[in-house]
Amino acid sequence: MSAQPARRIALDVVMAVRDSDAYANLLLPVRLGRAKLSEADAGLATELTYGTLRMQGYYDRVIAIAAGRPVEKIDPPILDVLRLACHQLLSMRVAQHAAVDESVELAKTVGSNSAVGFVNGVLRTITRTDADEWRSRVLAEAATGEERLALEYSHPLWVTRAFRQVLTAEGREAELEALLAADNVAPRVSLAALPGESSVDELDAHAAEFSPVGAILDGGDPLRLPAVKDGRARVQDEGSQLAALALSRVRPIEQGEQWLDLCAGPGGKAALLAAEAQVGGAVLTANELVPARAELVRKALAVFPTPPEVWELDGTTVGGLYPGAFDRILLDAPCTGLGALRRRPEARWRKQPSDVAGLGNLQAKLLASAIAALKPGGVLAYVTCSPHAAETKSIVASVLRKTEGVERLDTPAVLQSIVREPLDLPEASHVQLWPHRHGTDAMFIQLLAKPA
After folding, report:
1. How many structural domains are present in the chain?
2. Beta-carbon neighbour count of residue 82 at 10 Å?
3. Residue 407 lies in a domain
4. pTM of the full predicted structure?
5. Full 3-state SS string of 123-189
6. Structural domain that includes position 89
């Protein structure tokens, strides 16, 4: 007997994420395409992969209790097998004997005979206790309510605390549990119809709640839609659409405006900005330092008759090289990605608090560079796919303290004038979108202006 292909693919992807820093959302579709699995088996592989990565922290507690040893003492590939098994036993309607037998077969491909016996023994122990009792046993280890939420919803404690801090500042601390729960639900497939190239009406989908160019696909492969296949519409989170539109629609476009997407990879926001620029008579330039990501940007922009130029400059130098050159600048800053845990679940285990500090230095330099590159009278959008205060409000505040003549614009008012339905936003100069409240990634958007 050999392991079922769907489970083998899930194990391969989970191992690659742990061992090689692979991204599940990039690797899994490739593996599924090669394997040519049935729709049901592809669905199983997808649920196994993403479910295991999301709930890894919780499953590690279960495994540690069942094995009687810390997970750090377990050979990593065998631990991956156990994590996949836990997802089947505790969160899916998979027959126990099938989950155990298939996991033992997987263990044979990555471990010794003794490791196979260990897997069998741990899983037999897990099956003797139902999911509700396991939940009670794991949560009983929590010392505080905050730790209990982190355990139950499988988020690192430091991430849970960071989310609580931001929600508390909004007066919405009671929403923390809803936010953590939303991070563990697969996002809907959002599409963006590029203005001038396609329309929402031609997509086999229903209009998005907020984005005027957005649509929600109820199911099926987006590439079956001609507009998506041709690049005239794109798969793009509604929050990302709103971040780009906040800049492009902050005011009417004047013919010949020069726009810059400073950190453009992989190109989703650049494509939407390019479409808006084309319709309004502006000229977009995209910049992306990493060559492979720059190629992705070029691919995203290839749909246009005259594709925007793509630079490969260090974004922190652009302000010095092109002072006062651009009317509108998007700075979608490199960040921890803590706002996209629904679609990149492994990010929660990859990042550490120290990453926030390291990125903060880069974010501040990029923002200072973007301000220097902005024309008098120009508008800049500082955007991150992270709600962490140290990557958002703190960066803007620290840079503005050292920069004269730049002001925050009323970003909520700008977005409310753009969206189809009003957004639930607390009083602030910035916008913080949330998966539990808006159904988007947790996108932070702050518009800044340089007086004419």
Report:
1. 3
2. 27
3. yes
4. 0.95
5. HHHHHCCCHHHHHHHHHCCCCCHHHHHHHHCCCCHHHHHHHHHHHHHCCCHHHHHHHHHHCCCCCCE
6. 5-136
**CA 417 to chain CA centroid, nearest Å:** 26
- Segment 365-386 shows an average pLDDT of 98
pLDDT, one tens digit per residue, over 278-303 is: 999 999 999 999 999 999 999 999 99
| Radius of gyration for the chain, computed over Cα atoms and rounded to the nearest angstrom | 23
User: What pLDDT, on the 0 to 100 scale, is given for residue 153?
Assistant: 98
Give percent above pLDDT 90 in the chain. Answer: 95
27 and 158 within one domain: no
Q: What is the DSSP secondary-structure string of 15-44?
A: HHHHHH---HHHHHHHHHHHHT--HHHHHH
- Residues carrying an active site annotation: 385
Query: What's the one-letter identity of residue 30?
Result: V
Same domain for 171 and 84: no
- Token pair 């990605």 in the structure block, residue: 337
Evaluate whether 213 touches 419 at the Cβ level (below 8 Å): no
Structure tokens belonging to residue 49? 């992969």
Distance in Å from the first CA to the final CA of the chain: 73
Pick the closest to residue 81 from 109, 52, 106 (CA basis): 106
For residue 387, say if its preceding peptide bond is cis, omega within 30 degrees of 0: no
| CATH code of the domain covering residue 241 | 3.40.50.150
CA distance 56 to 52: 6
In a domain, 25, yes or no: yes
